[in-house]
Amino acid sequence: MNTSPDDLIQPFLIEASGLRGRLVRMGPTLSDIIGRHDLPSAVQSLMAEFAVLTATLSAALKFDGVFSLQAKGNGPVGLMTADATSDGGIRAYASVSGGVPNAGKNEGSPIPRLLGAGYLAFTVDQGEHTKLYQGIVELQGATLIECVHHFFQQSDQFSAAITLAAAPDGNGGWLGGALMLQRLPEDELSIRKEKMDEAWRRATILMSSCGKDELTARALTAHELLFRLFHEDGVRVFDTYPIRFSCRCSRERAQGILTMFSPEEIEEYKIEGRISVTCDFCNTEEWFDSAEIDAARAT
Question: Which domains does the chain have, with CATH numbers?
């Protein structure tokens, strides 16, 4: 059996129109992200899609720093966030504050069922000496894809179409995949608008024919999938980029959190004279004794 590589971003070009795209495949990295959190299955599924979407959107941007995707709502999942660094590191976190309802009749509507009403935010942070870019839209749609397409419709700088899928692999892990087509302003400089509109319609129709099982099929390589979809118009592939789980937490950052607490809170949180600080993204736990706590608060 021909097994496709996991955890990669495959850029491609449709030669007939010049439209650009990204194919994302995730396996062990997605399993690692989900496995670090004890979440209900419905929330795991949404987090898996969230991580795949974050990797896909970050791959379409030119930046040196961190791209973040955040959804905040008034449902049982009050917050879900994922971020990706420009070198392919990705992580995710969800805050579940209430009972998560069973899917039932609303199985196809995870956004209103889990997140409720709220907003979706896209942020690019390239460091303290650069301007922070942020786009915010209402959580409008039954699925994550509908919400992100609502963002595209509101955006003057980002015109794209995405399809994605994520599912358990049957062995305790997860598989995910996404396909994105991007329409850039300069595309219309080389092709008349009517032709570009027709090329865009054709490409998105071909993309929509891609089944969710194809996006996550290990037996189907990235090249085979792209050829299956776009071979009539010619498809050119470029060098792939790796994706991996990566958390930016550290003992130094955890120690810095201790300076945010009052002396009374410090005493309240102590367990046998020590305090633990746990990273929400990777669940790494750091312990500090009284001497280390005093030293941190003295700086």
Answer: 8-245 (3.55.30.10), 251-298 (3.90.1280.10)
Binned average pLDDT, 10 residues per bin, the chain of 299 residues: 69 92 96 95 95 95 91 95 95 89 66 94 85 88 93 79 94 95 69 82 94 92 95 95 94 88 88 91 92 82
Given this model, what pLDDT does residue 2 score? 37
Model pLDDT, residue 129? 73
- Smallest Cα–Cα separation from 199: which of 228, 233, 246, 150? 233
For the chain, where are the alpha helices, taking DSSP H only?
28-35, 41-59, 110, 144-154, 187-190, 193-208, 212-215, 222-230, 251-257, 263-269, 290-298
> 138-160 b/e with 16+ CB inside 10 Å = b?
ebbbebbbebbbbbeeeeeebeb
d(CA 293, CA 275): 8
Task: Give the per-residue pLDDT at 79.
Answer: 95
**Structural tokens at position 220:** 């189907």
Report helix, strand or coil for 220: coil
Q: What's the pLDDT at 255?
A: 87
Are the C-beta atoms of 174 and 168 separated by less than 8 Å? yes
Q: Largest Cα–Cα distance of the chain, in whole Å?
A: 72
* β-bridge partners, 9: 24, 241
With vertex at residue 47, the alpha carbon angle to CA 5 and CA 150, rounded to the nearest 5 degrees, is: 100
Residue with tokens 């995949």: 177
What residues have CB less than 8 Å from 297, skipping those under 6 apart? 258, 259, 266
What DSSP assignment string belongs to 240-257?
Answer: -EE-EE-----HHHHHHH
Task: Name the phi and psi angles at 129, rounded to 5.
Answer: -100, 15
